[in-house]
Design a protein that fits this description.
homotrimer, Thiol Ester Dehydrase, Chain A, 12-stranded antiparallel β-sheet, globular, MaoC like domain protein (chains A, B, C)
């Protein structure tokens, strides 16, 4: 068979490195599309001059766009036969991606655990994106439940990797040259610095965006994520497509500008849950909670750890029911570090 | 509160200059998206070679794209609490915007008049867009009705600015170097020169485009106009969003290519009314009426003053009822100057 | 009348050369949009580095994007009054199109044959696209049925051009420098070479994409194809628009990556039929059949002749009924040559 059947649980082994296909060059086109698809307004990604005044050579491609490209490349090799995405950890941005760069990615299998049913297992991978100079631009760990094809295949020795619950702020990689000493709060849109946010503070980002099929498909294709569930309406009676979870992350992150305009760069994602599926017609809103603050080693730059919650209706600041499960209106619960002026 | 509450009527004073946030760099990406979102075919904005043959260094970003970006930046500061946009005047394009340029904008409050209800007032601003060299690229006056938050705030002294009903052709700013002496009418698509249009002549632009939610939202986000009414379907029972008036202007202007292919550049907008709201599913058509002709000081270049009317059905060339009000199928009534070959 | 009425059958004569309007410059924006609109993953069009490793100066614009632009320019002059597109032949790609290039096109009338009804006739044209150096980038023959306006106009002498049923592989134009000797099959996504495909072999490309109105309109506008049937919903009771046939070609070609990842470049289209119309809501799938293999004169490069069939449901590998007519689920039947590693 010439087409890609994807890997099944028994096809993975710990230590295996899978080099993903189809490197991708980015340009101002990807940048413009990111702004057309999401209400993105963080100044560092909008203005070359603002980026240069912050010590970078030019305005990079949005951090989440870099994530989506690196992630998208891994889909045909890693998650084609996945039943469920179970989690993320230790996502770190290592180097900005600029127009003209070409990204590829590879994944190392770092854990395997067959489920007691014998029909599925959990696969843990660390995926790393590289630019055209073979320098890493970002990395993340994810784990998912994958079907077995040959149920007679023996269970592998169980290896469950230890990942950090939270990326230590000292492990955040600050882009070379980043300097917020001369930050223009007026141009950025808000006056709030790291020190203006209190741990425990919560922000309702107010605005909402109603999602369209055409938009999430354009976004998901742009990252060359070809998981058929996002494009093919025929399996569902209502003709809807399951929206790529990363589309919800980007939408919520962009909406969070209103109250977090200075949370310019994403340093790390500590953890993330896609609590409920998102469909066209849902109106996505977002709220944030300040989880921690930290110092980092760059002039004028500090770090804020945030919970970013995306919802489709429902009250802001509600998250889980008495049973400890996410309420039905919660789409995303993301724990991440941002870099912002002190 | 960390989120932006917007300004209320009592927060403005005449002479105040508001510097708008989030500068924006443009590239070939914005240009390609403009062509994907509107049926734009004016050759000067489509071909670098055509632009160079017309004396410009390169093909600029569409004039209306420049307007949308400059306008979009002003929304969070100026019109978040606006009840109604009441009018435009004295919009002039001062300098073409090229891929690689970064735009920011600022607004000066030039008039204030509290309404007799005491609950709202009219705010007049002159908004100017600047490129990365702090050179102005365009300017316009607009006025809108804005809510008071504190009803006890005293009424300001009424100041109503005098704006020109029509930009004098001698005030049109011709881009440096513009020269239509060697204009290629074949490549541009039509043979008609300024002198071929008679004052009073009317042109039905024939074609129609049915509007989709995904398209107007992508367009409006691309200009970083985050007015929630364009994105959030929840306030309306029919799940529709109010379409940004600028989307209708761009659509009508692009449709007007068929009959006005040589109306290459917009010199000024004299006045504009969004006569009725536009919603997804409407099929936008356009017709034009020639209002005036003028000479300008550039080789081979002349000016034509046009009325551009966008409709959603209804007969062409019908505009207002016997009561003097716009008929329900009229979306836009725009009075503007174009630059075209003599 | 200032608007374009289009040409009628009696307005054509054999030998006439029509220079089409509105040259178009392309950039990374067009490239990014192509990837947003189609699930395109062929590495040569995705990565500058992959293209350079294949001997090209940079990653070109997708071959089908070049076709769409050249074709789109011809619509106002050639097919505005066409009743039906009847066929394509001898489409050849002559030179890659790169970001920064500007395309224009012209058509030569190579055949005319009035129908026995006296109300319509068949017009045959050879359309050629040129870049800014006046070098041809592609050419194709198409023929369509066009209405007469003046039924009294005399029938022209019938001239029916002889076109090749299949482009001879020796007539394929290989881009200067193309070299697949050091081809990285891992980065390209599949291990299959020309020699791995057997004549008669059929491949079901598995994936499906449900089509949205917003997407096909953005695509069609991007190529400046302004045929109103693709944009104006009002003529049809169901509010749908007829989808540009080229949108289906691009969708099917992108879907064929899964099984034909190394079919990097299109060399020629031998013939193509839009078997049934495509509408929003249809889920497009694709299958291919290997028709021939050939050698070409470039290091490491070979040619494969393929049938590419797009469907909207129905079983793969079914094409025509017992009456010899296309089955209702078949959208496209395309016969084309690709260049791939040997």
């Amino acid at each position: 068979m010439k087409t890609n059947p994807g890997r099944f649980f028994e096809d993975y082994e710990v230590g295996q490195v899978i080099r993903h296909a189809v490197p991708r060059s980015v340009s101002g086109g990807e940048r413009a599309l990111y702004h057309a698809l999401y209400p993105a307004r963080h100044a560092l990604y909008s203005s070359n001059e603002f980026a240069r005044a912050s010590g970078l050579p030019d305005s990079p491609i949005d951090d989440m766009a870099a994530f989506h490209i690196v992630f998208g490349k891994s889909v045909p090799d890693i998650s084609l036969n996945a039943v469920a995405n179970l989690g993320y950890a230790e996502a770190r941005w290592l180097r900005p991606v600029y127009p003209g760069d070409t990204l590829r990615s590879e994944s190392e299998v770092i854990g395997l655990k067959q489920n007691s049913s014998g029909k599925t297992g959990v696969v843990y991978v660390r995926t790393t994106g590289f630019n055209q100079h073979d320098l890493p631009v970002m990395e993340f760990v994810r784990w998912m439940m994958v079907r077995k094809n040959n149920l007679d295949a023996p269970a592998p020795e169980a290896v469950v990797p230890q990942t950090a619950a939270v990326v230590d702020p000292s492990d955040l990689v600050i882009p070379a040259g980043l300097d917020f000493s001369h930050y223009d709060f007026g141009l950025a849109g808000e006056p709030h610095r790291v020190g203006d946010y209190e741990v425990g503070e919560r922000i309702d980002h107010v605005d909402g965006v109603t999602i369209e099929e055409a938009e999430h498909m354009m976004a998901t294709r742009l990252w060359q994520n070809t998981s058929k569930t996002h494009f093919d309406a025929t399996p569902r009676a209502d003709g809807k497509r399951l929206i790529y979870g990363g589309h919800v992350i980007s939408m919520a992150r962009a909406l969070s500008f209103n109250g977090l305009a200075n949370a310019q760069m994403i340093g790390a994602i500590n953890a993330g849950s896609h609590a409920n599926p998102c469909f066209a017609g849902d109106t996505v809103r977002a709220w944030s909670e300040v989880l921690d603050r930290a110092e980092v080693d760059a002039p004028g730059v500090g770090a804020l750890r945030l919970r970013l919650v995306a919802t489709k209706g429902g009250e802001a600041f509600t998250l889980k029911g008495e049973d400890g499960k996410y309420l039905p209106h919660v789409l995303l619960d993301l724990d991440y570090w941002v870099l912002m002026p002190v």
